[in-house]
Amino acid sequence: MNGTVKPRRSLAKSISMIFAALILALGTGYGLSLVGQGLAARAGNSVTVTGQARTSATADNAVWTLNAQESSTFVANAVTKVEASVAALTKYLTKGGIPASAIQSGAVTTNAIGEYINGNPTGRVLSYQASQSVTVRSADVNLVNSLSNGIGTLLQTGVNINNYGPQFYVSNLATLRPTLLAQAMVDAKARGISMTKAVGSKLGSVIAVSSGPVQVTSPDSVDTSGGGLYDTTTIPKTVTVTVSVSFKVN
């Protein structure tokens, strides 16, 4: 008799444990489903919109770097020739309207050009090369641009000048940026209203805002960079800023 009761008790205990485990599993699954629905509801109650604003700007500062370079079999002759080239360049610039105070000459540098046979140096110096940089800084960007375009007349005289072209900068970017950011926020809100209205919702308050880098490009350019872009080759420019705004949705 006792041998029959014990197996029945063990069976009943096992069934009870199985039901308890099943109830616990169902309860845990239901609880997790509620948490998931809550997170989905939070994610679904917001929208992130990109806003953009741009304006035209004109460069008001120019930095123009040139380099005089001459060579000779004697280092002294190379230096004399490069100094003559710099003098001719300076004359071209001042005659063109650049004040002497806006012209800065660097130090003369020299280096020996060695002989190589079959890729191996022989230790023999073939010639010496001398160079000197000249930098022009001016707010008259149009004058600098004109002189850069016309420097061929100087090169025709025989001087060896490398013209790297002027770089043009906008000095009031710090003033433009706050205004553009505000306009980009307005643009983002307008886009958000259009999006939520289309699905029968209403745009709520701002949750988060982040701004992108400033893009300074030529007027007809569509180039952008994740770290910001600054094109210095043109005088007229377009300045663009973007913002990413997250709104609540009601």
What does this 3D model show about the protein?
By secondary structure, the chain is an alpha+beta fold. The chain folds into three domains: 1-44; 46-58 and 172-249, Protein of unknown function (DUF541), domain 1 (Translation Initiation Factor IF3, 2-Layer Sandwich); 61-169, 2-Layer Sandwich (Alpha-Beta Plaits). It contains five helices and ten strands; from the N terminus they run H-E-E-H-E-E-E-H-H-E-H-E-E-E-E. The protein has helices at residues 2-44, 75-96, 141-149, 152-155, 173-198, and strands at residues 46-58, 61-72, 103-105, 109-117, 120-138, 161-169, 203-211, 215-217, 229-230, 236-249. The strands form two sheets. Strands 1, 7, 8, 9 and 10 form a five-stranded mixed β-sheet that branches. Strands 2, 3, 4, 5 and 6 form a five-stranded antiparallel β-sheet that branches. A hairpin with a 2-residue loop joins strand 4 (109-117) and strand 5 (120-138). The chain is elongated and about 85 Å long.
Characteristics:
250 residues, alpha+beta, Translation Initiation Factor IF3, Alpha-Beta Plaits, 3 domains, five-stranded mixed beta sheet, five-stranded antiparallel beta sheet, 5 helices, 10 strands, 42% helix, elongated
Structural class: alpha+beta
Strand content: 35-45%
- Secondary-structure element order, as H and E? HEEHEEEHHEHEEEE
Domain count: the total is: 3
Mean pLDDT: 87
Largest sheet: 5 strands, mixed
How many β strands by DSSP? 10
Number of helices: 5
Helical amount among residues, as a percent range?
Answer: 40-55%
Low-confidence segments, given as residue ranges, are: 1-7, 18-43
